[in-house]
User: Fold this.
Amino acid sequence: MRAQFVLSEIGVGLRRNLTMTFAVIVSVALSLALFGGSLLMSDQVSTMKGYWYDKVNVSIFLCNKHDADSDVNCAKGAVTEDQKNQILADLKKMPVVEKVSYESQDEAYKHYKEQFGNSPLASSLTPDQMQESYRIKLKDPQKYQVIASAFNGRAGVQSVQDQKGILDNLFTLLNLMNRGALGVMAMMLIVALLLIINTVRVSAFSRRRETGIMRLVGASGFYIQAPFIAEAAVAGLIGGGLACVALVVGRYFTIDHGMDLAHHLTLINFVGWDAVLTKLPLILATSVLMPSLAAFFALRKYLKV
Assistant:
């Protein structure tokens, strides 16, 4: 097979179907950009889980004198010193507990003012209305139920709260958004495949005379199909290249510069450039293989070779 002939046929085919080739490039670029973005989102969620689940605490809130009338768990009154000491001693004996810290009513009031000082409720609160609490760092964040079952309902304990539950709601939302992006990507991918198949059919039909002559002189099926497959591969590769550029530019302007999320959202551990760069070869490989296979199967049906 002469490479010069194949390359010349690729150029001819791309020029003849310029509008459809452009549509293929754009649809492939959008679908693969969404594909890469979904992979990065999945990595981001995993990174955030590893980062935040390692930092979450289980909080045991203790009854104060104001809870006796409003909370059934505190019907016996405010927590006593003996009860607090017993709770602390039991916590330190538990093998799942890594560290225990105590937050007084004054400290809780100070933290509340720092976080919600602008709310109307903040001005009416006093330190004695706040709850004392023990903040427990677990060796394994999944072992929350061990603490909950041991201290829920105990005298002097108002409630046991797992911060992991709050994070689970956030990660559920992020996963739903990621699945939505995958759904849009799947639709764009179907559109791209249909465009590729249609473009190959139109190109094969417009060159049916040349392919007929090639069959008569004994050209092999693959020799006849190669230019059409290569056209689809080139268009896909251009789209894949644009998708890679979109991911790199998106990461640069949203996290490092422009929006500068890495600076403004310091509590989030964003995925690094290594995660982005490892996705680019996969996107480029997909951008070549997907159109090539689509063209190959389209030609088997629509090009009689």
About this structure: The chain has a mean pLDDT of 79. The chain is about 70% helix and 10% strand.
